[in-house]
Amino acid sequence: MTEAAPDIAVLLADDHALMRESFRALLDASPGYTPVGEAHNGAEAVRLARQLRPDVVLMDVRMPEMDGIEATRRICSSEETTDVRVLILTTFDLDEYVYSALQAGASGFLVKDATAAELLNGIRLVSAGDALLAPRVTRKLIATFTGQGGPAAAAPRGLEVITEREREVLGLIARGLSNTEIAEHLHLGAGTVKTHITRLLSKLGARDRAQLVITAYESGLVRPNAR
After folding, report:
1. Which CATH architecture does the domain made up of 144-218 adopt?
2. Each residue of 85-114: pLDDT tens digit?
3. DSSP 114
4. pLDDT of 174-223, one tens digit each?
């Protein structure tokens, strides 16, 4: 008999008690998910992440004492919480924070008015090591904040160590293509694409797909709004 996969442990970080209660109720009612703690500010989120070692932190951006961006940076840069993934919650009027969150190490983001199904799927994707970056988000937000009013493009970071094929794969990841779409575009098998991505993560020192997107734009490999 195959053993059931363990529940995904989720830490909720939001300064609004009602929002935390809503998320907790959803997770409690959903098989496969377990809320393990609640934080009402960024500093508490960091402390609880170190103490509880959740699989995923559902992180609000604007919180007192320490915002969600700084909390994400501290969680993702600490050896104590290296396996903890952060999923940022945002609203469209806070789009300017998305790039900073990804730079800080977040594995993706969701809009606060996402449906219950989208939230649960997002948590599961991030827990599995995937990035929650829809193609339109990748194009509209990440490209915008790296090329139009965002941080200046940095010099290429280690791209000399990747192969030409890996460059092609990285460029397509940055444009928001899924593994299946990359395989079709390059006429490769799904397994081959996964192998290329694994090698890219290792060679570029990226923790997940989101960080590969950041590297692709910051290195200049992909230009904002390029087709």
Report:
1. Orthogonal Bundle (1.10)
2. 999 887 754 556 667 777 788 888 887 778
3. -
4. 877 878 889 999 999 989 998 999 899 889 888 777 778 878 877 878 76
Under 8 Å between Cβ of 219 and 159: yes
Q: Domain 8-132 maps to which CATH number in 3.40.50.10190, 3.40.1190.20, 2.50.20.10, 3.40.50.2300?
A: 3.40.50.2300
Three-state DSSP class for residue 206: coil
